[in-house]
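Quick illustration, no need to memorize.
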Amino acid sequence: MFKKQTLAEKREQRWAYLMIAPTIIGLLVLNYYPLFDTIRLSFSRTQTFGKSTFNGIENYVTMFSTPEFWKATWNTIWFCILTVPVGIAIALLVAVMLNAKVKFKSGFRAIYFLPMVVAPAAVAMVWRWMFNGQYGIINTILGKPINWLTDPKTAVIACAIVAIWSALGYDAVLLMSGLQNISKTYYEAADIDGASRVRQFFSITLPMISPTLFVTLIMRLMASLKVYDLIYMMIDTSNPVLPDVQSLMYLFYREAFVAGNKGYASAICIWTIALIGIVTAVQFVGQKKWVNYEV
Protein backbone atom coordinates (compact mmCIF):
# COMPACT_ATOMS: atom_id res chain seq x y z
CA MET A 1 0.00 0.00 0.00
CA PHE A 2 1.18 3.49 -0.84
CA LYS A 3 1.78 5.79 2.10
CA LYS A 4 -0.52 8.80 2.12
CA GLN A 5 1.36 12.01 1.54
CA THR A 6 1.27 14.71 4.15
CA LEU A 7 0.42 18.30 3.35
CA ALA A 8 4.09 19.29 3.64
CA GLU A 9 5.15 16.53 1.22
CA LYS A 10 2.52 17.59 -1.32
CA ARG A 11 3.66 21.19 -1.05
CA GLU A 12 7.28 20.12 -1.54
CA GLN A 13 6.31 18.03 -4.56
CA ARG A 14 4.49 20.97 -6.14
CA TRP A 15 7.56 23.15 -5.66
CA ALA A 16 9.72 20.45 -7.26
CA TYR A 17 7.46 20.35 -10.35
CA LEU A 18 7.49 24.14 -10.45
CA MET A 19 11.29 24.23 -10.42
CA ILE A 20 11.68 21.75 -13.30
CA ALA A 21 8.82 23.27 -15.33
CA PRO A 22 11.06 25.74 -17.26
CA THR A 23 13.34 22.90 -18.37
CA ILE A 24 10.42 20.67 -19.38
CA ILE A 25 8.76 23.51 -21.29
CA GLY A 26 12.05 24.33 -22.99
CA LEU A 27 12.48 20.72 -24.09
CA LEU A 28 8.95 20.54 -25.44
CA VAL A 29 9.09 23.87 -27.28
CA LEU A 30 12.70 23.88 -28.48
CA ASN A 31 13.38 20.17 -29.02
CA TYR A 32 10.38 17.88 -29.29
CA TYR A 33 7.99 20.17 -31.18
CA PRO A 34 10.57 21.02 -33.90
CA LEU A 35 11.42 17.31 -34.24
CA PHE A 36 7.82 16.20 -34.75
CA ASP A 37 7.12 19.15 -37.02
CA THR A 38 10.16 18.26 -39.13
CA ILE A 39 8.88 14.69 -39.42
CA ARG A 40 5.51 16.05 -40.53
CA LEU A 41 7.08 18.37 -43.09
CA SER A 42 9.19 15.53 -44.51
CA PHE A 43 5.92 13.94 -45.72
CA SER A 44 4.59 17.21 -47.12
CA ARG A 45 5.00 19.54 -50.06
CA THR A 46 5.52 23.07 -48.82
CA GLN A 47 3.89 26.01 -50.51
CA THR A 48 4.00 29.78 -50.15
CA PHE A 49 3.18 31.49 -46.83
CA GLY A 50 4.04 28.36 -44.84
CA LYS A 51 1.26 26.17 -46.22
CA SER A 52 1.93 22.50 -46.84
CA THR A 53 0.09 19.54 -48.34
CA PHE A 54 0.64 15.87 -47.59
CA ASN A 55 2.49 14.02 -50.36
CA GLY A 56 3.39 10.71 -48.69
CA ILE A 57 6.92 9.43 -49.22
CA GLU A 58 7.52 11.48 -52.37
CA ASN A 59 10.27 13.54 -50.72
CA TYR A 60 12.09 10.40 -49.60
CA VAL A 61 11.76 8.79 -53.03
CA THR A 62 13.20 11.92 -54.63
CA MET A 63 15.96 12.12 -52.04
CA PHE A 64 17.12 8.51 -52.37
CA SER A 65 17.09 8.74 -56.17
CA THR A 66 19.18 11.93 -56.33
CA PRO A 67 22.95 11.50 -56.87
CA GLU A 68 23.63 14.83 -55.15
CA PHE A 69 22.08 13.51 -51.94
CA TRP A 70 24.28 10.40 -51.91
CA LYS A 71 27.31 12.54 -52.70
CA ALA A 72 26.51 14.77 -49.72
CA THR A 73 26.06 11.67 -47.54
CA TRP A 74 29.46 10.35 -48.57
CA ASN A 75 31.04 13.79 -48.05
CA THR A 76 29.67 13.82 -44.49
CA ILE A 77 30.94 10.32 -43.74
CA TRP A 78 34.33 11.09 -45.30
CA PHE A 79 34.57 14.25 -43.21
CA CYS A 80 33.97 12.14 -40.08
CA ILE A 81 36.65 9.67 -41.14
CA LEU A 82 39.14 12.50 -41.63
CA THR A 83 38.39 14.42 -38.44
CA VAL A 84 37.26 12.07 -35.67
CA PRO A 85 40.12 9.51 -35.38
CA VAL A 86 42.88 12.06 -35.95
CA GLY A 87 41.22 14.69 -33.76
CA ILE A 88 40.67 12.29 -30.85
CA ALA A 89 44.24 10.94 -31.09
CA ILE A 90 45.79 14.43 -31.06
CA ALA A 91 43.46 15.55 -28.25
CA LEU A 92 44.49 12.55 -26.16
CA LEU A 93 48.17 13.30 -26.77
CA VAL A 94 47.66 16.94 -25.78
CA ALA A 95 45.67 15.91 -22.68
CA VAL A 96 48.47 13.59 -21.55
CA MET A 97 51.05 16.34 -22.01
CA LEU A 98 48.93 18.94 -20.20
CA ASN A 99 48.33 16.50 -17.37
CA ALA A 100 52.07 16.04 -16.84
CA LYS A 101 54.17 18.13 -14.49
CA VAL A 102 55.08 21.07 -16.73
CA LYS A 103 55.49 24.77 -16.05
CA PHE A 104 52.69 27.20 -17.00
CA LYS A 105 50.23 24.30 -17.22
CA SER A 106 47.21 26.58 -16.75
CA GLY A 107 48.44 28.90 -19.50
CA PHE A 108 48.86 26.05 -21.97
CA ARG A 109 45.35 24.79 -21.14
CA ALA A 110 43.91 28.23 -21.86
CA ILE A 111 45.81 28.45 -25.16
CA TYR A 112 44.56 25.07 -26.37
CA PHE A 113 40.98 25.85 -25.31
CA LEU A 114 41.01 29.32 -26.90
CA PRO A 115 39.70 28.19 -30.36
CA MET A 116 36.44 27.05 -28.73
CA VAL A 117 35.59 30.59 -27.61
CA VAL A 118 36.58 32.32 -30.87
CA ALA A 119 33.74 33.12 -33.27
CA PRO A 120 33.53 30.50 -36.06
CA ALA A 121 33.35 33.28 -38.68
CA ALA A 122 36.67 34.71 -37.47
CA VAL A 123 38.25 31.26 -37.42
CA ALA A 124 37.12 30.53 -40.97
CA MET A 125 38.30 33.91 -42.24
CA VAL A 126 41.80 33.50 -40.77
CA TRP A 127 42.16 29.96 -42.07
CA ARG A 128 40.93 30.98 -45.53
CA TRP A 129 43.75 33.52 -45.68
CA MET A 130 46.22 30.88 -44.50
CA PHE A 131 45.01 28.40 -47.14
CA ASN A 132 44.99 30.98 -49.94
CA GLY A 133 46.66 29.49 -52.99
CA GLN A 134 48.48 32.70 -53.97
CA TYR A 135 49.67 34.39 -50.79
CA GLY A 136 48.70 31.99 -48.00
CA ILE A 137 51.22 31.38 -45.23
CA ILE A 138 50.83 27.59 -45.48
CA ASN A 139 51.98 27.55 -49.11
CA THR A 140 54.81 29.91 -48.16
CA ILE A 141 55.98 27.47 -45.48
CA LEU A 142 55.62 24.44 -47.76
CA GLY A 143 57.11 26.23 -50.74
CA LYS A 144 54.49 24.73 -53.04
CA PRO A 145 51.57 26.41 -54.89
CA ILE A 146 48.72 24.24 -53.61
CA ASN A 147 45.14 25.31 -54.33
CA TRP A 148 43.79 24.18 -50.99
CA LEU A 149 40.24 25.50 -51.31
CA THR A 150 39.73 25.16 -55.08
CA ASP A 151 40.98 21.61 -55.60
CA PRO A 152 38.45 18.81 -54.86
CA LYS A 153 41.26 16.62 -53.45
CA THR A 154 42.45 19.16 -50.90
CA ALA A 155 39.35 21.25 -50.09
CA VAL A 156 37.83 18.67 -47.74
CA ILE A 157 41.26 18.11 -46.14
CA ALA A 158 41.58 21.84 -45.48
CA CYS A 159 38.13 21.89 -43.84
CA ALA A 160 39.07 18.83 -41.78
CA ILE A 161 42.25 20.51 -40.53
CA VAL A 162 40.27 23.54 -39.35
CA ALA A 163 37.66 21.29 -37.67
CA ILE A 164 40.35 19.33 -35.81
CA TRP A 165 42.10 22.53 -34.71
CA SER A 166 38.84 24.11 -33.51
CA ALA A 167 37.74 21.13 -31.40
CA LEU A 168 41.17 20.12 -30.10
CA GLY A 169 41.05 22.16 -26.89
CA TYR A 170 37.54 21.09 -25.90
CA ASP A 171 38.27 17.39 -26.45
CA ALA A 172 41.59 17.69 -24.62
CA VAL A 173 39.91 19.25 -21.58
CA LEU A 174 37.35 16.44 -21.46
CA LEU A 175 40.04 13.77 -21.71
CA MET A 176 42.19 15.55 -19.16
CA SER A 177 39.33 15.37 -16.66
CA GLY A 178 39.37 11.61 -17.11
CA LEU A 179 43.14 11.45 -16.69
CA GLN A 180 42.98 13.34 -13.40
CA ASN A 181 40.58 10.75 -11.99
CA ILE A 182 43.12 7.94 -12.40
CA SER A 183 44.67 7.02 -9.08
CA LYS A 184 48.43 7.51 -8.93
CA THR A 185 48.80 4.22 -7.07
CA TYR A 186 48.42 2.36 -10.38
CA TYR A 187 51.44 4.14 -11.82
CA GLU A 188 53.44 3.69 -8.61
CA ALA A 189 52.80 -0.05 -8.73
CA ALA A 190 53.75 -0.12 -12.41
CA ASP A 191 57.01 1.71 -11.66
CA ILE A 192 57.85 -0.86 -8.99
CA ASP A 193 57.21 -3.65 -11.53
CA GLY A 194 59.50 -1.92 -14.01
CA ALA A 195 56.86 -1.04 -16.61
CA SER A 196 57.89 1.59 -19.15
CA ARG A 197 55.90 4.80 -19.79
CA VAL A 198 54.59 3.37 -23.05
CA ARG A 199 53.47 0.18 -21.32
CA GLN A 200 51.80 2.22 -18.57
CA PHE A 201 49.95 4.28 -21.17
CA PHE A 202 48.48 1.25 -22.94
CA SER A 203 47.93 -0.88 -19.82
CA ILE A 204 46.71 1.76 -17.35
CA THR A 205 45.91 5.10 -18.96
CA LEU A 206 43.89 3.91 -21.97
CA PRO A 207 41.72 1.37 -20.08
CA MET A 208 41.04 3.80 -17.23
CA ILE A 209 40.23 6.73 -19.51
CA SER A 210 38.11 4.65 -21.91
CA PRO A 211 34.71 5.86 -20.52
CA THR A 212 35.71 9.50 -21.02
CA LEU A 213 37.19 8.62 -24.40
CA PHE A 214 33.90 6.98 -25.39
CA VAL A 215 31.86 10.06 -24.46
CA THR A 216 34.27 12.32 -26.34
CA LEU A 217 34.08 10.04 -29.37
CA ILE A 218 30.27 10.13 -29.41
CA MET A 219 30.20 13.92 -29.11
CA ARG A 220 32.78 14.37 -31.86
CA LEU A 221 30.96 11.98 -34.20
CA MET A 222 27.68 13.84 -33.71
CA ALA A 223 29.36 17.20 -34.32
CA SER A 224 31.08 15.93 -37.48
CA LEU A 225 27.88 14.46 -38.90
CA LYS A 226 26.14 17.80 -38.34
CA VAL A 227 28.91 19.96 -39.83
CA TYR A 228 27.61 22.96 -41.73
CA ASP A 229 28.97 26.34 -40.64
CA LEU A 230 32.61 25.47 -41.30
CA ILE A 231 31.96 24.40 -44.89
CA TYR A 232 29.61 27.33 -45.46
CA MET A 233 32.27 29.83 -44.40
CA MET A 234 35.30 28.11 -45.91
CA ILE A 235 33.86 27.32 -49.37
CA ASP A 236 32.08 30.01 -51.40
CA THR A 237 28.85 29.18 -53.22
CA SER A 238 30.62 30.03 -56.48
CA ASN A 239 33.47 27.63 -55.74
CA PRO A 240 33.39 24.71 -58.24
CA VAL A 241 34.47 22.23 -55.53
CA LEU A 242 31.34 22.83 -53.44
CA PRO A 243 29.54 19.65 -54.69
CA ASP A 244 32.58 17.63 -53.58
CA VAL A 245 32.59 19.18 -50.11
CA GLN A 246 28.99 20.04 -49.15
CA SER A 247 27.62 18.03 -46.25
CA LEU A 248 24.08 16.86 -45.52
CA MET A 249 23.43 19.87 -43.31
CA TYR A 250 24.72 22.20 -46.02
CA LEU A 251 22.38 20.54 -48.50
CA PHE A 252 19.56 20.90 -45.95
CA TYR A 253 20.29 24.63 -45.59
CA ARG A 254 20.36 25.15 -49.35
CA GLU A 255 17.09 23.32 -49.98
CA ALA A 256 15.27 24.87 -47.00
CA PHE A 257 16.39 28.50 -47.05
CA VAL A 258 17.65 29.08 -50.59
CA ALA A 259 15.39 26.90 -52.74
CA GLY A 260 12.47 27.12 -50.29
CA ASN A 261 11.78 23.38 -50.55
CA LYS A 262 11.27 22.76 -46.83
CA GLY A 263 9.58 19.39 -47.30
CA TYR A 264 12.55 17.91 -49.15
CA ALA A 265 14.94 19.62 -46.72
CA SER A 266 13.08 18.09 -43.78
CA ALA A 267 13.54 14.64 -45.33
CA ILE A 268 17.30 15.31 -45.51
CA CYS A 269 17.24 16.38 -41.86
CA ILE A 270 15.43 13.20 -40.79
CA TRP A 271 17.95 11.12 -42.75
CA THR A 272 20.78 12.90 -40.92
CA ILE A 273 19.12 12.20 -37.56
CA ALA A 274 18.73 8.54 -38.54
CA LEU A 275 22.39 8.38 -39.61
CA ILE A 276 23.50 9.85 -36.27
CA GLY A 277 21.27 7.35 -34.47
CA ILE A 278 22.75 4.41 -36.40
CA VAL A 279 26.33 5.51 -35.76
CA THR A 280 25.60 6.11 -32.07
CA ALA A 281 23.89 2.72 -31.71
CA VAL A 282 26.87 0.98 -33.31
CA GLN A 283 29.18 2.79 -30.90
CA PHE A 284 27.11 1.78 -27.87
CA VAL A 285 27.17 -1.86 -29.01
CA GLY A 286 30.88 -1.78 -29.76
CA GLN A 287 31.85 -0.03 -26.53
CA LYS A 288 31.21 -3.25 -24.59
CA LYS A 289 34.43 -4.64 -26.08
CA TRP A 290 36.79 -1.76 -25.31
CA VAL A 291 35.30 0.51 -22.63
CA ASN A 292 36.30 -0.38 -19.08
CA TYR A 293 33.93 0.84 -16.36
CA GLU A 294 35.73 -0.91 -13.51
CA VAL A 295 37.52 1.30 -11.02
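The chain has a mean pLDDT of 89.
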